[in-house]
TrEMBL record:
<dbReference type="GO" id="GO:0005975">
    <property type="term" value="P:carbohydrate metabolic process"/>
</dbReference>
<protein>
    <submittedName>
        <fullName>Mutant isoamylase</fullName>
    </submittedName>
</protein>
<dbReference type="InterPro" id="IPR004193">
    <property type="entry name" value="Glyco_hydro_13_N"/>
</dbReference>
<dbReference type="InterPro" id="IPR017853">
    <property type="entry name" value="GH"/>
</dbReference>
<feature type="domain" description="Glycoside hydrolase family 13 N-terminal">
    <location>
        <begin position="89"/>
        <end position="183"/>
    </location>
</feature>
<dbReference type="InterPro" id="IPR044505">
    <property type="entry name" value="GlgX_Isoamylase_N_E_set"/>
</dbReference>
<dbReference type="InterPro" id="IPR013783">
    <property type="entry name" value="Ig-like_fold"/>
</dbReference>
<dbReference type="Pfam" id="PF02922">
    <property type="entry name" value="CBM_48"/>
</dbReference>
<dbReference type="GO" id="GO:0004553">
    <property type="term" value="F:hydrolase activity, hydrolyzing O-glycosyl compounds"/>
</dbReference>
């Protein structure tokens, strides 16, 4: 019985989806009279080599029958070729010839990459949807795809399907397009405190697809790394710091506006600026139930995206101008001997 149970279990080998045949008792072997064959007169080595060659040939023929070559897939009217992609790094990563997308979702049963033009995003319309093949575009719990081609000016998000089970923490809804938590910029409403069309406080959001090159000059900037015991910290609400007219800055309530006041902080002896939340958040998240605004920002949407409505560039150039404005604030404060902390 033990031998039978072992024989009926599938064989785990290098060739997936194939299992060893279960052993079954058969008739006793019959004695046959010897006849000469093709191996007669050959050495043991030659016989083994011939057997290996025959087995390899049979296996290759079997592979050709069982593993048909996948057809090429294209997106954006043939402008981009859809390939398997890589599971790391997470987020959208510009590489030679295209962009790799990778996102974690352990509970999803299906996934699709959704592409937007800025005009279609405003109209709450997906420009193109690229379904992800769970066999080709999934490694463990990471879904991934590589789009070979030009994606300049496009935005992206994801659509996931799965179980809707709030008691287990699962809120899958295939009708929603969600933002990549690793997006470097989130494109949504343009103006701080102003709802989108139709008084919509939660319009569709999308992530910026990065370029394969940097558009910012750090001018050799490096982290300051002061010992904590030597810090003189100024806690700053980025928008509140210069929003009032008395600040006399060209772009009040923005990163570039705050740059104008860095010399003042240096005169005070400040060598560390602790920024209150300046990641992407929705200041109008309470607008449907209250007149209050989320001024402080302690309800982050994306930790890797600077708050676009804290920048003078806003969502222009798919948010890249806003990213460069945040980098400018960091670089210029370092020049004045001021390092930064960012509160989550």
């Amino acid at each position: 019985m033990k031998m039978m149970a072992m024989a009926e279990a599938p064989c785990l080998c290098a060739r997936p989806f194939l299992a060893a045949r279960a052993w079954r008792p058969g008739p006793a072997p019959r004695l046959r009279r010897w006849r000469p064959n093709a191996t007669a007169g050959k050495g043991v080595g030659e016989v083994c080599a011939a057997a290996v060659e025959a087995a390899t040939k049979a296996e290759e023929e079997e592979d050709e029958e069982e593993e048909p070559v996948a057809e090429d897939r294209y997106a954006l009217g043939g402008a981009c070729r859809v390939l398997a992609g890589m599971p790391a790094p997470l987020g959208a990563t510009a590489l030679a010839g295209g962009v790799n997308f990778a996102v974690y979702s352990g509970g999803a049963t299906a996934a699709a990459l959704c592409l937007f033009t800025p005009e279609d995003l405003k109209a709450d319309r997906v420009s193109e949807e690229v379904p992800l093949d769970p066999l080709m575009n999934r490694t463990g719990d990471v879904w991934h795809v590589f789009l070979e081609g030009e994606l300049h000016g496009m935005l992206y998000g994801y659509r996931f399907d799965g179980t809707f089970a709030p008691h287990c923490g699962h809120y899958f809804d295939v009708s929603n397009v969600v933002v990549d938590p690793y997006a470097k910029a989130v494109i949504s409403r343009e103006e701080y405190g102003v709802p989108a069309h139709g008084n919509n406080c939660w319009p569709q959001m999308a992530g910026m697809i990065p370029l394969p090159y940097s558009t910012f000059d750090w001018e050799g900037d490096l982290p300051l790394r002061y010992p904590q015991k030597d810090l003189v910290i100024y806690e700053m609400h980025l928008r509140g710091f210069t929003k009032h007219d008395s600040s006399n800055v060209e772009h009040p309530g923005t990163f570039i506006g705050a740059v104008s006041k860095l010399d003042y902080l240096k005169e005070l002896g400040v060598n560390c600026i602790e920024l209150m939340p300046c990641h992407e958040f929705n200041e109008l998240e309470y607008a449907t139930s209250s007149s209050k605004m989320n001024f402080w920002g302690y309800s982050t949407i994306n930790f890797f995206s600077p708050m676009t409505r804290y920048t003078s560039g806003g969502i222009k150039n798919c948010g890249r101008d806003g990213i460069n404005e945040f980098k400018t604030f960091v670089r210029e404060s370092h020049k004045r001997g001021q390092q930064q902390y960012i509160l989550p």
